[in-house]
Design goal:
This protein has 295 residues and is mainly α. The chain has one domain. It is built from 13 helices and no strands. The protein has helices at 3-26, 32-54, 62-86, 92-98, 102-113, 120-137, 147-168, 177-200, 209-237, 239-242, 245-261, 267-284, 286-294. Helix 5 packs across helix 7. The chain is globular.
């Protein structure tokens, strides 16, 4: 990749890593539902303005909009909601590490959904990744009932939802990715409005500028702008190179959490992150490929 593409990749990782810090700042002023609504609403406005400026036309097929609603539930509403709820009980640092397990879930689901073969290399990657998850949450999480344990499981649920969204999104191959992402975010905002009003009514919020700006930033940077950068990188660098962002997001989130939230990474968390990233590296295959070439 060129230097410019590496800079775009670093900026994308920074934006996605910032989401965990921004959600932490938005809590506890706003409820998880209101944070997700604000994030989706701001992003939908921004992305629709981009589409209008480009002069694109919206597809008229009702079925396509329904499918985008399903994608939004899996790729936005469920994971966003689970992560922000979990961060009421666990640190932003831990959340950012656990969510990195999404590609590992994707490999496992591919065996059952599309019948892909679990090779020895992929099996090793999955084993390393889930070993890291076990180190992070501990085997005792299923033995007792604690909000921290439920928070950790909620992040894993978000990672699983992201993995499922990847398979659901395959049906949109014939449509420009930027258009699909805009339709998906728009449908997510439409779903969140009545859901939030039903669950949260009457709305009672003690406004704080820090929390309000955090929700606004959530919609702009790790959602709307991140989508635009992501699809630009896909077009320029390809899916394989763009996937490197999975390795950078945890480091970005940890750095930002240390600076703005004064969180520190424990030895256990560092060990778990190392195992998960090692699993991702094995699944990615490029590192092993280079080692074979050297031999």
């Amino acid at each position: 990749m060129s230097l410019r593409q590496w800079l775009w990749l670093a900026l994308l990782a920074c934006f996605w890593g910032s989401a965990f810090v921004l959600m932490e700042l938005a809590l506890p002023t706003f409820s998880p539902l209101m944070i997700v609504l604000g994030r989706m609403g701001v992003a939908a406005v921004m992305l629709n303005l981009v589409i209008l400026r480009q002069g694109r036309r919206w597809p008229q097929q009702r079925r396509l909009w329904v499918q985008c609603a399903g994608l939004s539930i899996l790729n936005n509403l469920l994971p966003f909601g689970l992560v922000v709820w979990a961060q009421q009980h666990i640190s932003a640092s831990l959340a950012s590490i656990l969510i990195a397990a999404a590609p590992i879930f994707t490999v496992v689901l591919a065996v059952f959904i599309v019948g892909e073969r679990l090779t020895l290399t992929r099996g090793l990657g999955v084993l390393l990744g889930f070993s890291g998850v076990i180190v992070l949450i501990g085997p005792g999480v299923l033995q007792g009932f604690s909000l921290q344990g439920f928070g950790e499981l909620a992040i894993l649920g978000a990672a699983l939802s992201y993995a499922l969204a990847g398979f659901w999104g395959r049906r949109f191959k014939a449509i420009p990715a930027q258009l699909v992402s805009t339709m998906t975010v728009t449908m997510g905002a439409v779903i969140m409005v009545p859901l939030t009003l039903i669950v949260e009514w009457p709305l009672s919020v003690e406004w704080q500028w820090t929390a309000g700006l955090a929700v606004l930033a959530l919609g702009i940077f790790p959602t709307a702008l991140a989508y635009l950068i992501y699809y630009r990188l896909l077009a320029e660098a390809g899916v394989v190179k763009t996937s490197l962002v999975s390795f950078l997001v945890p480091f970005s989130a940890l750095l930002l959490s240390a600076v703005f939230l004064h969180e520190r990474l424990s030895l256990t968390a560092a060990s778990g992150m190392a195992l998960i990233l090692a699993g991702l590296a094995v699944l990615d295959g490029r590192l092993l490929g280079k080692l074979r070439l050297k031999r």
